[in-house]
């Protein structure tokens, strides 16, 4: 009988990828994914430690699991509860102490050992398992090759993990360990397998994905630009994206790839955190605001329609009104298609947490509102500028309404189209050119291909030599 597995994922895309791989490891043991924790045989909380709120959520979710866990044991069953991910790595002992109902705690580098951990937990109810090692072996070498096919058109693919940058506010170098790049041959192999399974778009993942320096087929180190070029050779792969990149690691080869590799989408998440040189220096970002502007100029020279997004932190220790004004100025200068912004959150063990000049909460909140207003208005203007344009849309899945499909523009915007259900199966996974007719919130609406005129090879060509799979209406 299939055992029920429930995984809740917090935090970044890397955790989303890891959760999928944990499900892959557990499938041969008879665990099938369930979308509810009630009655589950195994619950895994794959946690995030990046900000205090994210970390605290884990404890409230654990509290909520007490009742279903109790119920399960009253009916003679057992619900094993595991805490994985970055909180597990950072606070393993504390979780064990604070939440006695937890059976297993393990860090991001140990997922390949899940089968052993589970059989141990099963053998001895009451015995706690804690595994937060950074093992010498590469966990990727020990994860199963086959992935559970879900019929999805897009997929994440982790190519790099860990971080050596040590920004003073950030826990990632401690929770994920030192930087490590997977060999390019393995990455290409995994990408080919995904494409054979119907995937048309891969998003390459890494905490610092453009610090990628994996061993290539020629025995030399390949950077991200080279890797993108090689991936673009895979027939059937339509789109390549990557996240998250660091300004310091944007090199000439990557900029050139943005100009020349058609499948590399014109959308880049390039976090800057602050527009003040003083704060950037205190954060140990190792670049100035002007250096960031110049990198953006060069990227846009290579690919003029490149849309940029970023992350920002407001209220970093010592941030003055002038520093914050510099951030607003940078945002105005660059013009973003979207961004995440956060109030600085003190993280235990990081250098910034022990700085004396912590910024008042109310000041942080005011700055966050002002910054978000500016970023929202830029995002709205960017989305509005799409109306009337014809964009290639990768159709991903049925929409909320019958006779509706949802896809993504090159700029990652969701695009809704009215298409009869009878045609969905044939169209999902294809790229079609659609005229954008309107927007609602962050979503775009497009005329169904029939309304936009016949889609021939010629009319569908957005950029030359796109090599994208087309279908005629
Ligand atoms: N590797 C990526 C970011 C990973 S964390 C990079 O270098 O850009 C994702 C985002 O969380 C960061 O970009 C930052 O904006 C935010 N963040 C990280 N630590 C934080 C903290 N202590 N307080 C508030 N936001 C934080
Ligand atoms: Fe954190 Fe900085 Fe590394 Fe990004 S580059 S993961 S912000 S330490
Ligand atoms: Fe969070 Fe860990 Fe990702 S701290 S943002 S889940 S690397």
Keywords:
single chain; 473 residues; alpha/beta; Rossmann fold; pyruvate-formate lyase- activating enzyme; OB fold (Dihydrolipoamide Acetyltransferase, E2P); six-stranded parallel beta sheet; 14 helices; disordered C terminus; binds S-adenosyl-L-homocysteine; binds iron/sulfur cluster; binds FE3-S4 cluster
Would you give an account of this structure?
It is built from 14 helices and 21 strands. With 473 residues, it is α/β, with parallel strands linked by helices. It folds into 3 domains: 3-131, Rossmann fold, CATH 3.40.50; 140-384, tm_1862 like domain (pyruvate-formate lyase- activating enzyme), CATH 3.80.30; 390-466, OB fold (Dihydrolipoamide Acetyltransferase, E2P), CATH 2.40.50. A 6-stranded parallel sheet has the order 2-1-3-4-5-6, sandwiched between helices. A 5-stranded mixed beta barrel has the order 17-18-19-21-20. Strands 7-10-13 form a 3-stranded parallel sheet, with helices on both faces. Helix 4 links the parallel strand 5 (104-106) and strand 6 (129-131). Helix 8 (224-232) packs parallel to helix 9 (252-260), helix 9 (252-260) runs parallel beside helix 11 and helix 12 packs parallel to helix 13 (361-384). The radius of gyration is 23 Å and the shape is globular. 41% of the residues are buried. FE3-S4 cluster (F3S) binds next to helix 1, helix 3 and helix 6.
- Low-confidence runs (pLDDT<50, min 5 residues)? 451-473
DSSP, total strands: 21
**Number of separate helices:** 14
Q: Compute the CA-based radius of gyration.
A: 23 Å
Beginning-to-end CA distance, first to last residue: 45 Å
Number of domains: 3
Major beta sheet, specifics? Answer: 6 strands, parallel
Instruction: Kindly estimate the percentage of residues that lie in beta strands according to DSSP.
Output: 15-25%
